Amino acid sequence: MPEQQVGLLGGPMNKRALLFGAPGDAITLIVGNEANSTTFSIHKSLLCYTSTYFQNACKSERLKPEVKVIELPVDRPEVIRGMVYWMYYDELGITAKQFDHHTVFDGSRDIMDTKWGLWAQLYVLGDKYDLPQLRNHVMDVIVDQYIESNCQSPLGIVPYVYENTNSPDDPLRMFLVDVTKVFATRATIMANKNMFHAEFLFELTMAFADARRHLHFDDDDAADVDFCNRFHVHNIGDPICGDLRQPFVVDEPER
């Protein structure tokens, strides 16, 4: 017996049964400004079933029955296309051009036009239009593709994510902090140094503090931690210092 989902319209509802039966009228989403807009059609029942935001937008006092149009002037068509596709198929669709763009550090095009950028925008859209399951699916594909790309950290999306989320407990923020803390190389950090958001740097610093990653020195292991090479300045060929110099307390002469 197929699993029953709790629909936003009230009562148990299976989305496949909804679509297989009589999904009802369609709603037109007009995306973008008037000069350059794109339209998408989606069944009203599915739109309301998936999102409380759109359920409220479809109420009679906000949407006249004879119009059946919802305007989304500030959204990008490719992101709404991804949302509509997900609403029908429970999958995150992506074009081959976006998916095949593996390198996110070469500057060849806008990071937001890559797979990482699309997923970041869908993630933010999920919060904007009350689609928590969309956000969960986005996190799944980001983690999956991060692993598949041999831990290629998508740090290029940091500015967008931090400008469009609010909490340090946000899952995508925590993911970006975690992968940077554990896997980011010096080359990766240098390539993205101009993209680091102040809040990201703060949360990354706090993550290191929480992990209690700090150096501990004593006189016996100064050489073991390569203290001399890291913190002293010497000429080539000078011997390595094996001991830490101690302060000498001088007795003040009597006057």
Précis, in short:
This protein has helices at 15-20, 44-50, 52-57, 77-89, 96-99, 115-128, 132-148, 158-163, 171-183, 186-191, 198-210, 227-231, and strands spanning 5-6, 12-13, 26-31, 38-43, 69-72. The protein has 255 residues and is mainly α.
Please tell me about this protein's structure:
The protein is mainly α and 255 residues long. It has helices at 15-20, 44-50, 52-57, 77-89, 96-99, 115-128, 132-148, 158-163, 171-183, 186-191, 198-210, 227-231; strands at 5-6, 12-13, 26-31, 38-43, 69-72. The protein folds into two domains: 24-75, no CATH class; 88-247, no CATH class. α4 (77-89) crosses α6, α6 (115-128) runs antiparallel to α7 and α9 (171-183) crosses α11. The chain is elongated and about 100 Å long. β1 and β2 form a beta hairpin. The chain starts with a strand and ends in a 24-residue tail after the last helix.
Q: What would the keywords be for this entry?
A:
255 residues, mainly alpha, two-stranded antiparallel sheet, 43% helix, SKP1/BTB/POZ_sf, BTB domain-containing protein, BTB/POZ_dom
Radius of gyration: 27 Å
| Main sheet properties | 3 strands, mixed
Report the uncertain regions: 1-12, 221-225
Helix segment count?
12
Derived structural class: mainly alpha
Helix content: 40-55%
Beta-strand percent range: 5-15%
Shape: elongated
Side by side, the strands of the main sheet go 4-3-5
Secondary-structure element string: EEHEEHHEHHHHHHHHH
Q: What's the total number of strands?
A: 5
**Whole-number tally of structural domains:** 2
- Described by its quaternary structure, the protein is single chain
- The residue-averaged pLDDT reads 79
Q: Span between N and C termini?
A: 97 Å
Protein name: BTB domain-containing protein
Organism: Rhynchosporium secalis (Barley scald fungus)
InterPro entries: BTB/POZ_dom, SKP1/BTB/POZ_sf
Domain BTB: 25-96
